Amino acid sequence: MSTHGDAAEDSTFVRTYTLTRGRTRPRHLLGLDTVLNAGPGRPGPGQAEECEEILALCREHRRSVTELAGRLGRPVTAVKILISDLLDAHALVVSVTDAYAASGTDADERPTTHLLAALSAGLKRKWPDAHAYPQAG
Description:
Layout: H1 4-19, E1 35-38, H2 49-60, E2 63-64, H3 65-72, H4 76-88, E3 92-94, H5 113-126
Antiparallel strand pairs: 1-2, 1-3
Helix pairs in contact: 3-4
């Protein structure tokens, strides 16, 4: 026996599936608190309208992955997939300005995992065909 709630849930699932074109994982490592800025690029043709919404929100000011998912009313994983598409198009960039914002003598001076993930994403964008990076000897 199907109720209106079940039909709405099925509709949301189908919409999310088509929104991500069947993909279930983002190409980029994104934390819930990863902060994004609008970049110089543009989304490719055929991108979901949610991509334009993400860009509009990030043009206003920096936004976290969690905030974007909440404002769009979409599952975080689906939004991460769309963000990955926008990162590939250089329409979004990962903000790393807060990576060393901690101050004081007790501040941990090691890079954060988010800074390292942003660095890795930048290197992969710069050299997409490289399979391995040179190792320090």
